[in-house]
């Protein structure tokens, strides 16, 4: 282990598994546990960071991989009636394709850029098209015949990134732009086929193409819950968890109708605007203007920034009147920092004030952390941090001279996802981190960390700064950390699910009802934390080295389960352990038959994390 950089040291991991009665799939991730670590749900992905476009086939246009913050796939000719790139299999049937799309030029009126599915030939496909006439449309293209299935008015601006998602399931088609549903409808023209990137008399850039097996519900809100088959509860399954004594109370759901006193922010807003729905302002202006108890609503779209958006120290709400920064109900704002260079100073959103509630934002491609929390008593809820060049969401002190008494404390990270964060040296970008310099009472609940280049969770400590406050991680999930969604790896990363310490410093963390699956090193590791941690009701499956490794300290272990589908390294446990635990010591115990099959997860309508194995809800 190398000596960590100040403010960015190594990470710690742990994850929480979910208990609740409703199954509502916002998204599903499948991992084949009977055959190792295969990502069965991801049929195809490409972020073009390799500098090539392997697996794509061209029909018209001038296509190259160029740099736009990161690698992107560019079509530069505007004199082509149609320019297309195809990928995937002609046998694909029910799937969801997502991509970021930036139109860069249009040649005439009625031109478009699009994302397509079920292409059976060079001129057949379903597509979600952005038209320069101010429309987004879901279309069926069959040669020269174009049938509009549905659409909505949408300002389409060159130089702006749009997040597109197209789902095909049976005869049902649904399209979303920036998290807002454009249209849904029915067509029986094409039953299977490849994905397509297309332009018509237009130039554009495409990035982050992902194809997932199966149809997906709206990316901006949970689907209606359904009732899964009742699982057989483990004999040691706890009652429904109560809130941690140190955790803030769980927030209520975002309101469906915004209050009239709110400030509104939109991609085209201006600093001096009033901040009404019809005259929106900018995020940086709204942050300085919102009063305690007020709400900043961000409308759908991609917000491009080249410098950190900061909630400054002293810009505080109160315990009874938080300041709220929220996605507008039913919409998905994306804060994109791809213009930043990789550098510790280049964070995305910095929450350095106290008593804020951040809800429903996607923060991506920052030069360092996507979301940095230096303040206290904040709630970060339903955020997604992805493709950042250090840890996705990190808690640490604001500055090197910040006294211990002001280290971030009593923050709640709730129903959040962090994935595909990767730094250039491959050893600093975790999903979540509360490390180096954090106070007490910080809680991660119902969180999911996957496919980060280093650890899922990092609670690292070092001698220079001493112990951190005890952290609670509960009802959460970590999987496939150490390998990016596109298969990329780096040799320097630790690749643990939950890394819980560092440098022989004892901190008494609590990790309960969490799940670690198929991470590149250990599932749960003490990482030289020789304290007395509480490790209870956790499940660890098929991690590359040990599922559980605790080689020192006096931690207490109860009701933990370790399973493998094939041979592996025995768990190592030092501390207070009894027969309520089922460790892996060369063979599986009786509980493991309940934890086989594909892994799925979703957040239900209240934000609770639902984890399934083989279609059954996991109860720990």
Automatic annotation (TrEMBL):
Belongs to the polysaccharide lyase 9 family. Keywords: Calcium, Lyase, Metal-binding, Secreted, Signal. Residues 47-209 form the 3-keto-alpha-glucoside-1,2-lyase/3-keto-2-hydroxy-glucal hydratase domain. PANTHER family: PECTATE LYASE (EUROFUNG), PECTATE LYASE PEL9. This is 3-keto-alpha-glucoside-1,2-lyase/3-keto-2-hydroxy-glucal hydratase domain-containing protein. GO terms for molecular function: carbon-oxygen lyase activity, acting on polysaccharides; hydrolase activity; metal ion binding. It comes from Catellatospora bangladeshensis. Residues 215-262 have a biased composition (Low complexity). Its cofactor is Ca(2+). Residues 214-281 are annotated as: Disordered. Gene3D superfamilies: Exo-inulinase, domain 1 (2.60.120.560), Single-stranded right-handed beta-helix, Pectin lyase-like (2.160.20.10). Coiled coil: none annotated. GO terms for cellular component: extracellular region. It is found in: Secreted. SUPFAM superfamilies: Concanavalin A-like lectins/glucanases (SSF49899), Pectin lyase-like (SSF51126). Pfam families: 3keto-disac_hyd.
